[in-house]
Design brief:
Helix content: 55-70%
Strand content: 5-15%
Shape: globular
Strand order of the largest sheet: 1-3-2
Largest sheet: 3 strands, mixed
Length: 101
């Protein structure tokens, strides 16, 4: 497992560029070795985390395993348009929360 020191060194010394953008509905991230670029699908990461926590709220007595199953099922039924709309809302909320501080 990579240590924090290793990760920090990668950020500081690496030629890789990091891009936060849409990839596709089923991909959290990707690396292009020849272009030295890392792609992170911020949409999928945010939507899955939000749905996961929403389901904990809706079903407080369910086990983590069951919540993970429901999260996957729920996410799989969302359209790309749904994902982008919900993520847009979450990003606006994040920006607003940051401004409040």
């Amino acid at each position: 497992m990579a240590s924090l020191k290793e990760l920090k060194r990668f950020f500081e010394d690496s030629e890789y560029k990091i891009s936060f953008n849409w990839i596709d509905k089923n991909t959290f991230g990707n690396i292009n070795y020849s272009k030295e670029k890392i792609f992170i699908n911020i949409y999928i990461l945010l939507i899955n985390t939000f749905i996961h926590e929403f389901l904990h709220n809706k079903y407080p007595k369910l086990s983590e395993k069951k919540i993970e199953e429901k999260t996957k099922n729920y996410s799989n039924h969302l359209t790309v348009s749904d994902i982008k709309k919900i993520t847009k809302y979450l990003l606006k909320k994040m920006a607003w929360e940051k401004e409040k501080k």
